[in-house]
């Protein structure tokens, strides 16, 4: 990965997932606020699409926008998949940042 792309990756990941950025999401889920969840997903989708990690967000979007209201269990299953993908993204970003920081020192 070249330096320019490396810098871009670090910049977008740090803006997507600043410390505590999952807290609003957790509060939305505790309130079972489907409208707020839909808005949160909408804001994240384009960013996640850049790295082709947006499938869980699209699944959640489709579930929220289907004609019949989804069950709590269906919603929770999609949310869990979304959280797993978010965790993977964060871990990869941290790994990339460490790798980038090490290469700067070389």
Structural class by secondary-structure content: mainly alpha
Cα-based radius of gyration, to the nearest Å: 16 Å
- Low-pLDDT stretches are 1-6
Strand content: under 5%
Order of helices and strands: HHHHH
| Overall helicity | over 70%
DSSP strand tally: 0
Described by the principal axes of the CA atoms, the overall outline is: elongated
- Averaged pLDDT: 76
Q: Report the end-to-end length measured between terminal Cα atoms.
A: 15 Å
Largest β-sheet summary: none
Please count the helical segments: 5
3D architecture notes:
- By secondary structure, the protein is mainly α.
- The protein is built from 5 helices and no strands.
- Helix 1 packs antiparallel against helix 5 (72-105) and helix 4 packs antiparallel against helix 5.
- The chain starts with a helix and ends with a helix.
């Amino acid at each position: 990965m070249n330096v320019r792309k490396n810098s871009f990756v670090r910049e977008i990941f740090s803006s997507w997932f600043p410390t505590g950025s999952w807290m609003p999401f957790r509060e939305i889920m505790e309130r079972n606020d489907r409208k707020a969840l839909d808005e949160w997903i909408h804001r994240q989708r384009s960013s996640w699409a850049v790295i082709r990690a947006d499938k869980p967000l699209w699944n959640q979007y489709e579930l929220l926008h289907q004609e019949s209201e989804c069950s709590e269990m269906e919603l929770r299953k999609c949310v869990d998949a979304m959280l797993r993908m978010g965790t993977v993204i964060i871990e990869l970003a941290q790994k990339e940042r460490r790798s980038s920081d090490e290469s700067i020192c070389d």
